[in-house]
Amino acid sequence: MSNSLGDPSMSSPLLDRASNAMIGGNLASQSLQMVPTGSSQMNSNPSGMNSPMNLNMNMNIGLNMNMNLNEFAKINQANFNLLANFNNNGNANTAFNMNNTLNSINSNANGNATSNSNGTNSNKTMKPNYANFATLTGHTKAISSVKFSPDGNWLASSSADKNIIIWGARDGKHEKTISGHKLGISDVAWSTDSRYLVSGSDDKSLKIWDVQSGKCLKTLKGHTNYVFCCNFNPQSNLIVSGSFDENVRIWDVRTGKCIRTLPAHSDPVTAVHFNRDGSLIVSSSYDGLCRIWDTASGQCLKTLIEDDNPPVSFVKFSPNGKYILAATLDNTLKLWDYNKGKCLKTYTGHKNEKYCIFANFSVTGGKWIVSGSEDNMVYIWNLQTKEIVQRLTGHTDVVLCSACHPTDNIIASAALENDKSIKLWRSDT
To answer: For residues 328 and 284, what is the distance between their CA atoms, to the nearest angstrom?
Structure first.
């Protein structure tokens, strides 16, 4: 393994999500000391990281930009199956909407979320019964990401083998293989209309793909180190990406140009995600921070930090955009009310100390939290009670990535180099 992880000018082995076991482990062992929003500093330089670790951050970034991002951040009501909401006591209330809209959530006079579902109490006692119904093989190296298309028809997987494979979401049939990156791929994400994909690679670029033709439409260049994570906004006119160069970039899909660079963190960026209307971005990093950004202005609105400051390996918004789910390299998942800076729920029992493992909200049947684990299993927790309700066994290596189908009770999981397979799981509840 090269010792030039932070030096983009050096030629180093594949450093995507799936192929470097020790990045998180090395950084997790460091002592981190954070300062308030506006600047971030590490008090030590992690082993193997040669890039500068001290970054004085101006949160009023982009003031010299001539472009008005409001046109790219117009609010567009996003469709979802279910929204997890919490009252002031931190107890979960849920609302299910068969029409896949946000109108199922109501608020009382005190502003507390209420539910139009009768399933809240039953969810506390019900358990899923996920069983493997398909094992998909085709990648020749570790699998870094799996994502279901928003229309529910397809599953995309990315790998250290530089390829994206499209599979049937319900039958696991191999549809096509998409190639074009020069190095391994760390992440892949769908546009809202399920017509396009974006991928981020160790070749320091992102690519936008037409899924039907398999052709690359745009190559997005600007990051100076490995691109580790990416996502479309709900309107699918913007892409956000995070990199080992410690920056978050926002890209115009139509032109393929970077329209804003956020000097977001003082260590590699591990995850980026838009909220339900695209107005906010959340980012996470090995520096131990989660940050909330205003998409239009590029300003940092909120910084979340824990007292012991473990590296944050993954983060995403809840479906209603009010909360974030964050994974840290101390075997912990936490659900945060980011407006209050308050942790509402903590999920433990799995193993996660080295890898950036995806976590998910499962909202099609019961209300679950789903994550892979370094003990080769998939863990499922009851969102409300925090109880582990099922462990899925069958993989023979670290389960790095998982995804939940948008409408069916189906989970996809995928594992590292000693496994290289994707498993599809189905539940009656």
So the answer is: 10
